[in-house]
Design a protein that fits this description.
The chain is α/β, with parallel strands linked by helices. Helix content is 43%, strand content 20%. A six-stranded parallel sheet has the order 3-2-1-4-5-6. Helix 7 links the parallel strand 5 and strand 6. Helix 2 runs parallel beside helix 4 and helix 5 packs parallel to helix 6. The longest helix is centred in the first third of the chain and has 16 residues.
């Protein structure tokens, strides 16, 4: 059986129908939940995580919309994905930045223990956290096949979603689901 990983990036209420929600994000929820539920391998979740000091951070100054504040409804995984996470007992990496160094280091440890056959990413937002995590993982595990399912991602806008997919493809991340 292949040693495969699915990384579900930031499927949180604030990115779906909250402070930074979009119709495109809302449209992928059921399909991402179905993919995570049926994935034959290890499923891992990330959660964008900010504190009450968000407005004083560099991100807060550049994006002055408070979102994913630890402990709030907007910070939580959406109900469909939280149900999958609970059912699978899947780990969650809270990340204070776009990409998670902790996730990448953990994947390196998993790969050292048992070589990883593939890593797939999906989630939100394609042009910020999905691309950041994909490139961080690629830098840490350059020989592990890495893919992103375009149908199971949404960007801040459709145009930047496509631009992020093109960037990842340029960096040898396989784009599937087109």
């Amino acid at each position: 059986m292949p040693n495969s990983y699915l990384i579900v990036v930031d499927m949180q209420n604030d990115f779906i129908d909250g402070a930074l929600g979009t119709p495109e994000a809302q449209a992928i929820v059921a399909d991402v939940a179905e993919r995570a539920r049926g994935f034959e391998g290890t499923v891992v979740f990330t959660r964008d995580t900010h504190g009450a000091d968000y407005a004083r951070t560099q991100e807060g100054r550049n994006l002055p919309v408070a979102h994913c504040i630890r402990g709030t409804h907007g910070w939580e995984l959406c109900p469909a994905l939280e149900a999958v996470r609970e059912q699978r007992g899947a780990p969650v990496f809270d990340k204070p930045s776009f990409g998670s160094l902790d996730l990448a280091r953990w994947l390196v440890q998993q790969n050292a223990a048992e070589p990883i056959d593939s890593i797939e990413l999906c989630g939100l937002c394609t042009d910020i956290c999905v691309v950041s995590n994909a490139l961080t993982i690629k830098a840490h595990l350059p020989e592990v096949p890495l893919s992103v399912d375009a149908r199971l991602c949404a960007g801040v806008t459709p145009a930047v979603h496509e631009a992020a997919l093109a960037t990842m493809a340029s960096c040898q991340v396989r784009i599937v689901g087109r």
